[in-house]
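Lay summary. Proteins are chains of building blocks that fold into shapes, and those shapes determine what they do. In this project we predict the shape from the chain. Here is one chain we studied, written as its sequence of building blocks.
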Amino acid sequence: VSRLEGAARAAAGLARQILDYSRDAADTQGRADLRTCVEEVAALMRHSLDPRIEVRVDAGAGAAPVPLAPGRVQQILMNLCCNARDAMPAGGVLELGVRVHGSEATLRVRDTGMGMTEEVRRRIFQPFFTTKEPGHGTGLGLAVCREIVAAAGGAIRVESAPGQGTLFEIHLPLAAAEAAPAEPLPEAEAAGGHTILVVDDEPLIRMVAERFLERAGFRVVAAENGEQALDLLRREGQRIDLVLLDLTMPGMRGPQVVAALRAFLPDLPVVITSGYSEQSVTQATWAHEVQGFLAKPFDRKSLLAAIARALAGA
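And here is the predicted shape, written in a compact code that computers can read:
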């Protein structure tokens, strides 16, 4: 049974990446500051990677705006950082950098890992190509990154050799100047004293959500699976104002968690997060039991907007 569950989780992860790979290029549209994204991802990496991996940042000064949603830039960085981690099982240096020259910005991710052969280097962006063991990689991560960058009018270059580490350079056009300062986000006002329970089995996603919410003024508690979340809600449910719940987790899945918590917290707002399409989730038989949907990968703005809508309707 455990093998079947593992295979099902792997299939779900693959399905999410296939959906990501096939999404329309318009899904990448937005505006992000590369330097801000690099600083945020570097902070996450320092807390989550093996302590033998030193994370360095060379982001320079000033803004580096590019025509990509912040969530997409973070997705690229996370993917490259996780690949770098896998290339340095005994530790090493992971360096993230940003440079602006003329009308272009360059994002650099360098590691001191095992490197790769020329044959592997030429194939790494091919869909479904992976050097990882079965069950540990889909071969879609770098293909997705390439499509995201290409949709924004950019390009990816990689340098690597066995024993000499790897350098990825992502070249992106600078975004046009904004016509006017962005108006304050109405969702930022929703934080006032609210406590959010974040439930997700992926540590990096939990950490990203926690940081976004805490910076917006929310109090945050976290659980890594459905059983842990329900135990916490039974003990402290009266102080939780909303649950941000992953749809697909080992053990109890999102719909099972929702059904269980409705028995003792019938009015608690729940926002489902998933890499699947919103339509496939909202058409499910249990969809009326939740108050919102948030597509992965998400950025700060979309997360806070989903939380604000759910709290407003509570």
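What the prediction tells us: Confidence is low (pLDDT under 50) at residues 1-27, 134-139, 180-189.
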